[in-house]
Design goal:
This protein is 33% helix and 24% strand. It is α/β, with parallel strands linked by helices. The longest helix is centred in the last third of the chain and has 22 residues. The structure holds oxa(dethia)-CoA. Oxa(dethia)-CoA binds next to helix 2, helix 6 and helix 8.
């Protein structure tokens, strides 16, 4: 982090809605099977928000859990960044709704949208504010209500995604602890492979866009899968290089939970034993920008991350975007 202040994660929290939709439930809704979904993705069930709940509500719960963990009052937050591909609205920003909901009276707030990589980009952005000394406490939230955006008649996508939120509070750390570095990037030529085509400036809502079901997630799974396998490799390698570390140093790898086969290929590539890689895709599916912080919270709760461990985060998604982070816990 150069001559700037050290930045640490001072607390974390997550929230998933209680309603569980299993693969067996999906078998009754679309032409699919539990065995296909488990073999191709590793997903067994996912959480769905109830009708009256939206992304900002999930974000609020995760934020409050995070602040409790950090022992910090909402009025002491200087900035809230919400990463989401499924915000409550295009505007106002979901971060503004969260600011009001948690009573963060002194906070600035804005959203970031960079698909499933959102949490890593938001973490990198929040880190700069603390490292520069501009702000003391920055709350970073990844929150999604993807169940509202999937096409429940499209078996190729609707079985993949779930709802949830995870949050981290960034604050000044001691020298030698905390965030070591990031590697971020995009390949915009693949933007059409994973998108929500209609409802904005390029293709405003119309009878035609509704009939063609263009207000839902569209994904070409195979090329996105190939991109993910390749990019995990390079994003992890590059962030380790930037921090002067090697794959053997990784204490815990927290990958975006998009597909168990993608995670397994990363384990094989880096020779990391499975017990040092956090996997919870079976319970939650792909929660996009919430997946990394939720997995991190569960890894902490399970005692998998110990003080001094090198924790590496890696994610990829719409854009096509990617990002990795290295942290000394
Ligand atoms: O987080 C953002 C980043 N997203 C990702 O990383 C997702 C990356 N992609 C993937 O994870 C995989 O490509 C999928 C899980 C989406 C699909 O797996 P796949 O092995 O690439 O399957 P496929 O799309 O090639 O489909 C194989 C077959 C097809 O049937 P035919 O054409 O061979 O007869 C599909 O129609 O499986 C069929 N299929 C299904 N069958 C039962 C597709 N979805 C389903 C389903 N149930 N839900």
């Amino acid at each position: 982090m150069g001559s700037t202040r050290p930045v640490k994660i001072a607390g974390m929290g997550y929230y998933v809605p209680p309603h569980v939709l299993t693969n067996f439930d999906l078998e009754k809704m679309i032409d699919t099977s539990d065995s296909w979904i488990v073999e191709r993705t590793g997903i067994r069930e996912r959480r769905l928000a109830s009708r009256e709940v939206s992304t900002s509500d999930l974000a609020r719960e995760a934020a409050l859990a995070c602040l409790k963990d950090a022992g910090v009052s909402p009025v002491d937050i200087d900035l809230i960044i919400v990463a989401s591909a499924s915000p409550d609205h295009l505007f106002p920003a979901t971060a503004c709704l969260v600011q009001h909901a948690i009573g963060a009276l002194n906070a600035a707030a804005f959203d970031m949208e960079i698909g499933c990589t959102g949490f890593i980009y938001a973490l990198a952005t929040g880190t700069q504010y603390v490292a520069s000394g501009m702000y003391k406490n920055v709350l970073v939230v990844g929150a999604e209500c993807l169940s509202r955006l999937v096409d429940w008649t499209d078996r190729t996508t609707c079985c993949l995604f779930g709802d949830g939120a995870g949050a981290a509070l960034l604050a000044e750390g001691q020298p030698g602890e905390g965030i070591l570095g990031f590697h971020l990037g995009v390949d915009g030529s693949g933007g059409n492979l994973l998108s929500l085509p209609a409802g904005c400036a390029r293709m405003p809502a119309s009878k035609d866009t509704l009939e063609k079901r263009l207000h839902h997630i569209h994904m070409e799974g195979k090329p996105v899968f190939k991109f993910a396998v390749k990019i995990i490799d390079s994003a992890v390698t590059k962030v380790l290089e930037k921090c002067g570390r090697s794959p053997e140093d990784i204490g815990v790898l927290i990958p975006h939970q998009a597909n168990l086969r993608i995670i397994e290929s990363a384990c094989a590539r880096f020779g990391i034993p499975r017990e040092r890689v956090m996997v919870n895709i079976d319970k939650y599916g792909n929660t996009s920008s919430a997946s990394v912080p939720i997995a991190m919270c569960e890894a902490l709760a399970e005692g998998r991350i110990r003080k001094g461990d090198l924790v590496v985060l890696v994610a990829f998604g719409a854009g096509l975007s990617y990002g990795s982070a290295a942290i000394t816990w």
